[in-house]
Write a sequence for this structure.
């Protein structure tokens, strides 16, 4: 699982860089809107769960394997980034749809891990 989580973290980070440096500059319409507003949040949700699962593994603690674990984790992270950041950072905007994007990223992580685990078994 360490290798899977590290790979997903690298892919999420790579997508973030590709999106910020290339994709947002060459797209238009609804795709540009999605890439600017929600794509990074979706991959952030995936990366947060992968990073948390990796830390749990390194600490020899039980892994994340259900939505009952990912939903609260990503809700708390979303509260920090969407609510508290808006209080501290001038110009930061609270967007409730970002919570949906974080949760979708966590769901994507769960689906990928389950799929990869079934393939390896």
């Amino acid at each position: 699982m360490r290798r899977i989580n590290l790979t997903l973290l690298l892919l999420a980070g790579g997508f973030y860089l590709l999106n910020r440096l290339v994709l947002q500059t060459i797209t238009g319409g609804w795709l540009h809107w999605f890439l600017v507003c929600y794509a990074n949040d979706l991959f952030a949700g995936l990366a947060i769960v992968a990073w948390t699962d990796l830390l749990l593994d390194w600490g020899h603690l039980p892994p994340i394997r259900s939505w009952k674990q990912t939903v609260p984790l990503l809700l708390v992270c979303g509260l920090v980034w969407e609510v508290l950041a808006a209080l501290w950072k001038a110009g930061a905007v609270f967007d409730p749809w970002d919570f949906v994007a974080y949760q979708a990223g966590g769901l994507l992580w769960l689906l990928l891990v389950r799929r990869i685990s079934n393939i390896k078994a």
Q: What stands out?
A: The mean pLDDT is 91. Residues 46 and 109 are 5 Å apart (CA to CA).
